[in-house]
Specification:
single chain, 351 residues, alpha/beta, Immunoglobulin-like, Rossmann fold, 2 domains, 8-stranded mixed beta sheet, 5-stranded parallel beta sheet, globular
Length: 351
């Protein structure tokens, strides 16, 4: 995903958005009538991205460790050519082991790979070689991640940067099994709360699909149950998932890389809209120079149900409203830095 900072225009409140603009024809109407809100956001390209790989270390992971190691370049080359200030680290999904719990795997005191790391691809491969497949406790990625956050906060220079977007990639033949604490919903809330609006958090995974799958394990054929908690996290953070049981992981890692540095933009709304009233458009350019351009947005729901034709040419794009995050996601268009994105919609007036 091409990461973008969100900068509001005008003298708005502390939320980062300007005061809602109420249509004069609606002003003064009784409670319960719709008010029109107009959010305007200027985009600037973010510069920082933190990537954390969380890899299972139980026995059934053994055949796939070599697959990850042999193909990690497919993912890493996207970072290397992105122009971002990125860093990439690795830890085990095991939260019960007191020694490794929440610790980043190091290679000769190198705790993460970044653009300036000499022979960075080789360094990360050596980190992967340390994961092993002797773990006994299963996938406890949620607890391991929470412990990692605690550990890194106590360090003079922690891995997670306050001003960087975050991509978590889980590789596991198992579903997350931390138990009832944290619950999936509470962990999702805490994960999203790590970053300020405008910085994106994604939870992706190479895990068993919802219907389960089978693969050739170290002791013969193994059937894996669906990784429901990981799939929930990916669905609600716009992450990418691929099947752990696939023999060829190149397409999965390629999609992960493309989405990490690629083509989606997420914008948060200042109020909860009536979804059918959403209007989205982007403006950019200078009237004095090359001219002012306006790209119209089309709600992907109405494209899918035939109300609109899919945008095949320039000057339009599709968007989706994500109700759980109260945000707009541009699905097939990334406005240039400096573009102004408008989101106009109706809300219910307060009683």
């Amino acid at each position: 995903m091409r990461w973008l900072w969100l900068i509001a225009l005008g003298c708005g409140d502390e939320s980062g958005f300007e005061e809602p603009v109420v249509d004069e024809q609606l002003a003064g109407l009784p409670d319960g009538w719709a008010e029109e809100v107009h959010d305007r956001v200027m985009l600037q390209q973010a510069e920082k991205l933190d990537v954390l790989w969380v890899v299972d270390d139980t026995r059934n992971m053994a055949p796939k460790l070599d697959v990850v190691n042999a193909n990690i370049d497919v993912y890493q080359r996207y970072l290397e050519t992105s122009g971002l200030d990125w860093r990439m680290a690795l830890m085990r999904a095991d939260a019960a082991d007191a020694v490794s719990r929440g610790r980043l795997i190091e290679d000769d005191d190198v705790r993460w790979v970044e653009p300036t790391t000499p022979m960075g691809r080789n360094v990360f491969r050596r980190m992967l070689n340390q994961v092993g497949a002797l773990g006994l406790y299963g996938d406890e990625s949620f607890r391991a991640f929470e412990r990692m956050v605690e550990r890194e906060e106590d360090r003079a220079e922690g891995f997670l940067r306050d001003d960087a977007s975050l991509q978590v990639v889980v590789v596991s033949p198992l579903d997350e099994r931390s138990g009832q604490e944290p619950s999936t919903e509470s962990f999702l809330r805490d994960l999203l709360a790590l970053k300020e609006p405008g910085l994106t958090v994604n939870w992706s995974g190479v895990v068993p699909p919802a219907e389960g799958c089978s693969f050739r394990g170290p002791d013969g054929d193994v059937h894996l149950f669906g990784a429901q908690r990981h799939l929930f996290m990916a669905e609600n953070t716009e992450g990418v998932t691929g099947s752990f049981c696939e023999d060829d992981w190149v397409p999965i890692l390629d999609e992960l890389g493309a989405r990490t540095v690629g083509y989606r933009v997420e914008l948060y709304l200042s109020a909860v809209p009536e979804p059918d009233t959403l209007e989205v458009w982007a403006e950019f350019g200078s009237e004095e120079e090359e001219g002012r351009f306006v790209y119209e947005g089309q709600d992907v729901r109405h494209v899918d149900d035939g109300r609109f034709d899919r945008c095949d040419e320039g000057h339009c794009f599709t968007f989706a409203y994500l109700s759980q995050r109260n945000s707009i996601q541009l699905l097939d268009y990334t406005p240039p830095p400096g573009a102004e994105v408008h989101m106009k919609y109706s809300v219910r007036a307060e009683k």
